[in-house]
């Protein structure tokens, strides 16, 4: 029989732990019956692992965030999420936690201090970093706790999150449930270190391995870990040894697991062992156990009735679309009118600086952005003015920093992350596309994050420092994509992006940084995201463009006074200013869509489609697109010039003029 060390626990606490560990077991047993009856669809079972979710969550304060995964029902029940609402969630009903938009455990709720997972598993870990950073900055004695499976530890996100927590001295508990398998893959095909906790040493953090089936051991270990993290202001890695007693998910079976393993681990069942120990020690009588179970059973039956009775969702398209973004209107569009000549890069920097002064909950993060001032010196002098806590150099780990930014947002902070080059967003892509962009729609949490993207070519920097990758983001509902072309727009849009509680991907063309200057208002002001700007009025051709394209078009117009170009600077690519686009089409009846991005899949194609659907009667010629070659961006200057859309602008305009 399993041994339990009750030192330090009152009888009442021991019984409380029992009540909490029985509940998820009983819910799951019921779910398995319903599954067999075909009354629910998919189910990921945590049977046999309940001591971990329950013991760990019980060891935390109720307002400390947990980042659970797909087998951690115990986290949700310990936090007292009502069963009927949980069941509505699993049924995909409107009154669940995600309005029917998310499945099983892929949801969170701030009321319960639970941040929901995305399918990708590893991204949960860095969110815990951001939450812990918020605690640290506010000097609160709190921790965050993130779960990982043994399989999930192979993801880069695991490494990045642990490293950031160690480097930044963040009070995070990283908890691994080592249950022997990642889907069908046994641990010896997943990693070769003896224990996963041994990895802690490599990050310079403490790591321990415990019996994950013993609820008292888990509860005690996490309680001690919590004290340690708060007192030492450091993270810890806790590996809980356990076993997955059922298939990866119920439909997938367990053929690949040797039978003996089930027999061995059945003897270590966390619920029956604890119950037997409580009975033997006369801490609980059989009648009390029966009464506890009966109460839970009734709660489950009531919840099921409510869930099955609830009507199916009647989709409301307006509500679906409205929930993609947190509603927001800027209030600070005005300025006094006093202006100074500023370079594009100075305007970006001015906006950031004034935003830092205005929002004391704004944190800047990025590689080399502190003392060094950033690769392009946008944040030069910031660390002296605002201090290292708010102007943070990061290790080289884009994914973890985007995740940490989301964690900060959950705790009410704003953040700006500088991608050193827009190209490097690829290694933070998952967090941007799947976490930041979708979280508000999924369960109502916003991501108050701006990601700055020094972008574009023309500077001889080759394929990985020159890309125009805005279209990757434009096709992702939930993001806003901003791309200014002038210093005045750069500052106003930067301020607007920081004010906006939604995730904004902010493109800054590197070639404009020091080549373009203009008068910029001295005061703080914002320019509304989603509003285009008429650069110049004209009669012959409407050039719809943004970024460097605006300057190519104006330069072309100056050199060709005989051609009258009507130039529209989109400024925001998501949302697009359709009214302005329509007006521009109407103005000349001839449209040229110009961008530095490659042609296929560039935003020009999307706008062309929209114009042909909505402005067909206004067109006097086919819509023409001018984009860069459909190749990577080459290094040699001659090749790069040949690549660039700018070199084909004359041909495109000449073609249109013939209509
Ligand atoms: C990035 C990513 N790759 C693959 C999957 C498919 N998948 C879902 S769960 C899982 C196994 C996870 O194993 P582990 O982390 O040990 O957790 P466990 O399921 O054992 O609790 C896999 C491969 C996924 N969800 N995300």
Mean pLDDT score: 97
Bound small-molecule species: thiamine diphosphate
Quaternary state of this entry equals single chain
Rg calculated over all Cα atoms: 28 Å
How much helical structure, as a percent, in the residues?
40-55%
What's the story with the biggest beta sheet?
7 strands, mixed
Shape: elongated
Structure summary, number of beta strands: 21
Physical arrangement of strands within the biggest beta sheet: 10-9-11-12-14-13-19
Distance between the termini: 89 Å
Uncertain residue ranges: none
Structural class: alpha/beta
Report the total helices.
Answer: 25
Beta strand % = 15-25%
Task: Provide the descriptors you would attach to this structure in a database record.
25 helices; alpha/beta; 659 residues; 41% helix; binds thiamine diphosphate; seven-stranded mixed β-sheet
Protein model, in words:
Helix 1 (11-36) packs antiparallel against helix 10 (270-280), helix 2 (50-58) packs across helix 8 (215-232) and helix 5 packs parallel to helix 6. The strands form five sheets. Strands 10-9-11-12-14-13-19 form a seven-stranded mixed sheet. Strands 1-2-3-7-6 form a five-stranded parallel sheet, sandwiched between helices. Strands 16-18-17-20-21 form a five-stranded mixed sheet, sandwiched between helices. It is built from 25 helices and 21 strands. The protein is elongated. With 659 residues, it is α/β, with parallel strands linked by helices. Strand 6 (206-211), helix 8 (215-232) and strand 7 form a beta-alpha-beta unit. It is 41% helix and 15% strand. The protein binds thiamine diphosphate (TPP). Residues 71, 119-121, 149-152, 177, 179, 181-183, 244, 248 line the site of thiamine diphosphate. Thiamine diphosphate is lined by residues 71, 119-121, 149-152, 177, 179, 181-183, 244, 248.
